[in-house]
Amino acid sequence: MAAALVSAPPASPTAAAHNHRLHHLLTQNDSISLRRVKQIHGRILRTNPPPESNPESFFLYSRLVHHYSLQDLSYAFHLLLQIPNPNAFIYNTVIRAYARSKDHKRKAFSLFQEMVKLESVVPDNHTFPFVLKACAYLFSLSEGNQAHAHLLKHGFASDVYINNSLIHFYASCGCSESARKVFDKMQERSLVSWNVIIDGLVQMGDFDEALKFFVEMNKTFEPDGYTLQSVIDACAGVGALSLGLWAHAYILRKYQMDSDFDVLVNNSLVEMYCKCGSLRIAEQVFQGMIRRDVTSWNVMILGFAMHGEAERVFEHFSRMVDEEKLLPNSITFVGVLTACNHRGLVDEGRRYFDTMGNQYKIEPVLQHYGCLIDLLARNGLISEALDVVSSMTMKPDNVIWRSLLDACCKQSINVELIEEMAKQIMGSEENAASSGDYVLLSRLYASADRWNEVGLVRKLMTDKGVAKEPGCTSIEINGLVHEFFAGDTTHPRKKEIYQFLDVVNQKLEAEGYIPDYEQASMVNELDGEKGNSLRLHSERLAIAFGLLNSKPGVPIRVFKNLRVCDDCHNFTKFISRIFNVEVVMRDRIRFHHFRDGMCSCKDFW
């Protein structure tokens, strides 16, 4: 069809009636076929004056742009260029279509730039949410900042809908301060405003702040399903089981969930309970689901894997494939291989890795390789692990080299090989070396009595501004999350905690516990704080606080940001036996369930 706007005779009474019919066809619904839209377009070209001289024609063309934007976006843009002096509605229509498209989101901002150059058209309150949505999806901070400047210029600083879009944009780009600043300046907030800031904080990993905002929101708004979805994710991140249980109860009490929403929310609940250390409730939710999708099975499999329940992982994998007839995906095999890794099941790990590619035609990614390499290396199969590294179709990342480095250090592999691995990490441009990498290398040199190299590593850390990440452990008591850092002196009950910890240490040593000061001295030396000792590790402070405040028979659940050290692991085993308490500990790697002086990891982690 020709795109040019041809002249037509003046409208007659009959033509007016005809236009009314066309108007009705273009406004009654959005399900008109593209073929029908083109037929209507042709009739408009033959019977109507050009749009610049007739308001009725202009409206018909604006509706044509709308319908083309739903089915033929390139033609919609082409038609926009043919309309003399298009208004904000027409521009917004195409910008919105670009923002919602899969492959053309960047064109939304380009068209917006062309729009603001025109004197004849002014962006309105519908323009900016579409533009900001596209910028958020593309993480285009510079372009979004420009849109922010334009909306301020046009007087939309107090528009609630636009500010909600701004918060989402900044949160998507990881700019928490900017998102908070927009939110704090809002004179009027809707429930959506609170949902956007809470979800943004969750996506940025600021779970504590997200929950604080939720508590504040509850003073003025009743949460909806979207709020609770974010709250559940925040509870999973921080280990706030009490609040997660409340959110679950609230959902059951308030919502009659449809099938899709039921699956979505229950998947989040299963993940939350797994990450909060309550595997039993997670399984109850999973078993009670009327409908499950692949994500449901993946969440449950990953939950069993992080708790070291390898047999349950294999069982659920078989049920998923054989009974439910669902095809596993890449994430499924991350869970299965993680389970093999946490239990040291080398043969099973090799078999599932081969099955993934040979039977299900799933190309392994870094996570799959990382699981297999770590499994092999930690079981002493360093040469085989290096063979896997050399066979990879992509460049190994620092996580893979770090796992090899850690395994080699523990097995006293020759220093030259470890140095070569360390160089791979230190010389990486894509991923900067973490403080843990330097600590590992320093421990290696110290164990080999190469103290000059220990000093060089320390100097390198100083020169690069790398600080050792402080240990931090959280514990939830009576619905409140308490955080403890290594050597913490900020808690209001610190004196009571340290006095009780002295009593605990005396009881443990009387029962045969011998502290491993070798690891403590290494930490002290790296920190430059000679007074530190193992008793200052954050998980010990949290466990002591839990023993002081938890009710008898209630498990103590602690969540640490780093990997638990050998001595604290041994310390917690003694605690579980002497104080007859179950301690559930989530560290950076996995869950540990301590009962009766034993750990679920069987001392392999």
Task: Describe what this molecule looks like in 3D.
This protein has 605 residues and is mainly alpha-helical. Among the domains are: 1-86; 292-393, Alpha Horseshoe (Serine Threonine Protein Phosphatase 5, Tetratricopeptide repeat); 395-468; 472-599, no CATH class. Helices cover 64% and strands 5% of the residues. The protein contains 30 helices and six strands. Strand 4 (583-586) and strand 5 form a beta hairpin.
| Helical fraction | 55-70%
The strand line-up of the biggest sheet is 2-1-3-4-5-6
Shape: elongated
Report the sheet with the most strands, covering strand number, pairing sense and barrel closure. 6 strands, mixed
- Low-confidence segments, ≥5 residues, pLDDT <50? 1-9, 521-532
Rg (CA only)? 30 Å
Task: For this entry, give a set of tags.
mainly alpha, 605 residues, six-stranded mixed beta sheet, Serine Threonine Protein Phosphatase 5, Tetratricopeptide repeat, 5% strand, 64% helix
What is the strand and helix layout of this fold?
Layout: H1 13-27, H2 34-47, H3 55-71, H4 73-82, H5 88-100, H6 105-117, H7 127-138, H8 141-153, H9 160-172, H10 176-185, H11 191-203, H12 207-217, H13 225-238, H14 241-254, H15 259-275, H16 279-287, H17 294-306, H18 310-323, H19 330-343, H20 346-358, H21 366-378, H22 382-391, H23 398-410, H24 415-426, H25 435-447, H26 451-463, E1 472-477, E2 480-485, H27 494-510, H28 517-527, H29 538-549, E3 556-560, H30 566-578, E4 583-586, E5 591-595, E6 598-599
Parallel strand pairs: 3-4
Antiparallel strand pairs: 1-2, 1-3, 4-5, 5-6
Helix pairs in contact: 1-2, 1-3, 2-3, 3-4, 3-5, 4-5, 5-6, 5-7, 6-7, 7-8, 7-9, 9-10, 9-11, 10-11, 11-12, 11-13, 12-13, 13-14, 13-15, 15-16, 15-17, 16-17, 17-18, 17-19, 18-19, 19-20, 19-21, 20-21, 21-22, 21-23, 22-23, 23-24, 23-25, 24-25, 25-26, 27-29
